[in-house]
Amino acid sequence: MFSTLDFSVIPLALPAIFKGLAFSLELTLIAMIGGVILGTLLALARLSGGKWLGRAAKFYVDIMRSIPLLMMILWFFFLIPLLTGQPIGQEKSAIITFTLFQAAFYSEIMRAGIQSIPRGQVNAALAIGMTYWQSMGHVILPQAFRNMVPVLLTQTFVLFQDTSLVYAIGATDLLKAAENAGMLYGRTVEMYLFVSLIYFAICFALSMLVKYMNKRIAIIR
Amino acid sequence: MNYHWNWNVFFQTIPSGDETYLAWIIHGLGWTVSISLAAWVIALVLGSVMGTLRTVPNTGLRLIGHAWVEFFRNVPLLMQLFIWFFVVPEMLPRDWGMWVKQDMPAKEFITAFVALGLFTSARVAEQVRAGIQALPRGQRNAGLAIGFTQAQTYRYVILPMAFRIIIPPLTSEFMNAFKNSGVAYTVGVWELIFVSRQMVEETGGQVIESLIVPTVLYILCAYAANQLMAVIDRRAHVPGFIVAK
Amino acid sequence: MTKFHLLLASALLCSLGTAQAQVDGTLKKISDTKSITLGIRESSFPLSYLDANQKPIGYHIDVCMAIVEAVKTRLQNPKLEVKMQAVTSQNRIPLMVNGTIDLECGSTTNNLDRQKQVAFAPTTFVTNVRMAVKKASGITDLDHLGGKPVATTTGTTSVALMRANEKGKSIDFKEVYGKDHADSFLMLETDRAVAFVMDDNLLAGLIANSKSPSDYALVGAPLSIEPIAIMLRKDDPQFKGLVHATISDMAKTGALTKLYNKWFLAPIPPKGINLNFAMSDALKALMAKPNDNPAEMYNTKK
């Protein structure tokens, strides 16, 4: 029956799909930047030696890593307004959820990155009179970050694929836009195949980028 | 909070049925665990094979491994499941297609765990490859030098070491298998997310109750997976062996 | 009905007063924030859905806009901002309860369970839960479905409804579930299911939009008759009074019938199809005597 596949509706649906894609990319970008910053802070908290600070950070990371993102998206969407009394749009809610959720994953990557820098470097920085935070900011983090760029990017394309889960709260991402169009025009299969291709193209490009960076960083080392 | 709490909802009988919502949840947990474990077996077997292929000297085999990984990890799981469920059966000869669509036992369950297994296999393959490549080159050379074939070198030297050092990242993937199993509801498997959604509907909107129990169960599943892998890690640990990153 | 008349009277009395300060509940919220948020559905054809430019349109959107006009008049504020928030069958009730949306203009069945958490406007549409089948299958009734796969959509009332029919008539279906109506319909289209049980207006829309509409038919006696209504917050007599007065008025003046004809009996976006979905007797009766009776009062015979 799929000899009757009809892709002629795709041009009609393109404006909606681009709008959805724009949101998926926006969500990915904001959650990546926010997640890396927050994740780095969490990683530093875990490595700082502060007992309670470290435990709190570990607890946060463990919980976030145990709950399916889909569940997390639903929780935040229902709970934030219930707790604050302030209604929140689905786009904002998705951005907050993704940032907080991804922070846990980025923090594990950053922690590994920081630990990959020889301990002697911290000592050297302290010896020349830097504070702990200065040594982190000027010596350790820039290197840790550079070493971890490929892994951070890999996590980011997992994040990009996961944006497809925001359909659960009615935010219109790439997948949701395609689904709506498929429903409107009665061409669900065609729309799915088309967006699969878009996802594949973007993720494949990203994975090639990761590969290229891995090679470059191998040279630096 | 302006919310109508009702924790007794779990002991209520579902509309026009004999079960309680609690029975639904237990049912759902059963499917979640089954899908995750079945998918994990597929992921581990295929992921190991494909990950290993990516490190062998033969270019053709390496390409197969590479294509496998790129294909299965660059499309969101949700779409892959859709394609397996709705598109692939249409490509089969008509009789086979009809069998898959109507008569195959537990068809939704099988489609779901196969799709999840293949998706996860690409990630496992990446970990296996990373583990093999993290081993000092000397190990392979030593294996070949004492007269092992390539296959024997992998079997007796490289893989036993590689698998031990990738247990921590595999733990994450194992936990991910549980967390990702939720997409199975999109093809109609009565797993935890399906139950949670249906409960919200049939109880007239008891959202928090319907979400919290599945969430806790997911956390428990992830914790169990984590602990299981930790036990394996302790048993399999190679004393004194730390891989340089 | 006396309670309702009281509400109506109090609403009218209030609207005669001049000061805005008298408003409370949702009206106060709208007045304070100078905005009203409508919950919309993205694919509840043709009650509430998105057109090609992702703009929400549909019969219930039009009805809600009439309510918005009434709110503007009531608050003497012609410049209210109207926000649209997409909702799903999963989150519409929590979002109403937590104040994210002020009116839900989708396709929500008014039933007693839901009335514990929210309130409803007078019924503006009545849907019959029926089944769509392929004409070639020769299926015309529920009795033909024994042992056969039947599709419905996750998280809808139809799931429980099928369970009830299975039990009541001792027919054994093999239920299959789509995550949304498009998937459920695809199950019918690809022969994963021989029938799709759902609200008839949605089925009519899916069939009209499908590749070959003439292959499908809506068959069988209704499994259930469900009043579909605009949803609002509970325990908010002032706002409810205004909404009820507005819709009752529209029903009596014929404005509602006109809107019905626009969406159900004429070509509609995006493809310009005409559903040709004549008004049911139940809805005709409601136009003459609007009420907000729950589904339970429509299906007493079972």
UniProtKB/TrEMBL annotation, chain A:
CDD domains hit by this protein? TM_PBP2 (cd06261)
The species is Uliginosibacterium aquaticum
Membrane-crossing segments per the record: 20-45, 66-88, 191-212
Q: Give residue ranges for domain ABC transmembrane type-1.
A: 21-210
High-level lineage: Bacteria, Pseudomonadati, Pseudomonadota, Betaproteobacteria, Rhodocyclales
Tell me what topology the record assigns in the membrane. Answer: Multi-pass membrane protein
Q: Which UniProt keywords apply?
A: Cell membrane, Membrane, Transmembrane, Transmembrane helix, Transport
What is the predominant subcellular site recorded for this chain? Answer: membrane
**Domain of life of the organism encoding this protein:** Bacteria
Q: This protein is called what?
A: Amino acid ABC transporter permease
TrEMBL record, chain B:
Q: Tell me the keywords, alphabetical order.
A: Cell membrane, Membrane, Transmembrane, Transmembrane helix, Transport
Q: Topology versus the membrane, per the UniProt entry?
A: Multi-pass membrane protein
Among the Pfam families in the record, one is BPD_transp_1
List, alphabetically, the Gene3D superfamilies matched.
Answer: MetI-like (1.10.3720.10)
Q: Could you tell me where this protein is found in the cell?
A: Cell inner membrane; Cell membrane
Q: Chief subcellular site?
A: membrane
Q: What is this protein called?
A: Amino acid ABC transporter permease
Species this chain originates from: Uliginosibacterium aquaticum
UniProtKB/TrEMBL annotation, chain C:
Q: Does the keyword NAD apply?
A: no
- For this UniProt entry, which residues form the secretion signal? 1-21
Extract the InterPro entries matched here.
Bact_solute-bind_prot3 (IPR051455), Solute-binding_3/MltF_N (IPR001638)
Provide the alphabetized UniProt keywords. Answer: Signal, Transport
- Reading the lineage from the top rank, the first entry is Bacteria
Annotated Gene3D superfamilies? Periplasmic binding protein-like II
Q: State the name under which the record lists this protein.
A: Transporter substrate-binding domain-containing protein
What species does this protein belong to?
Answer: Uliginosibacterium aquaticum
The family assignment reads: Belongs to the bacterial solute-binding protein 3 family.
Domain Solute-binding protein family 3/N-terminal span(s) in chain numbering: 35-267
User: Pfam families under this entry?
Assistant: SBP_bac_3 (PF00497)
